[in-house]
Amino acid sequence: MRLPRHGWTVLEVVIAAVILACAFLPIIRLVDFGSVNTVKISSYSKAARLAQELIEECKHVPFKVYQNNPNYSGLADGQLMDIQPDYYQKTKKSIEEFMNANKQSLRDFGYLAKLRLKRTPFNQIREIWFEVEINWRDRGKKDEANQPQRRVRAGNAVYNSEAM
Fold first, then answer.
1. Which of 2, 17, 91, 146 has the most CB atoms around its CB within 10 Å?
2. CA separation (Å) from 83 to 30, 79, 87, 105?
3. Which phi and psi angles does 62 have, rounded to 5°?
4. What pTM value is reported for the model?
5. Domain-by-domain residue ranges, the chain?
6. Residue 152, Cβ density class (10 Å: 0-12 exposed, 13-18 middle, ≥19 buried)
């Protein structure tokens, strides 16, 4: 007569551990994938916010300031030109803070801020088109040379109701 068995064998414990590990591996990978995408989406939203802030700050500069700026006086109708950094000092500081705070996760960070003037026949500025592009590459586990370039573009125009 055989005695009843109490407990598990080592083989049964090992098999159970392997089954549990196989079950939890996809869940762990899903959490890792989600956190990486959260960082990417966060970078996109911050870049879009900064681009809009830059445009809004430039839109609040009076038209006379743009009209009297010697850099813009000879600008042909529709020609693109860099926006003077003096016109978006607050946003420039925010962009620099963003770059410094994200040095570990972003690289090759840069931005372009351009404007395009539309003039009346009397050489007054009728409207100004602002275009901002912010670009970067993510740092990651993959080969950094193969990381895709991320880009956010924003644009807006302001109309001069006083132009004739």
1. 91
2. 43, 12, 7, 28
3. -60, 150
4. 0.74
5. 10-159
6. buried
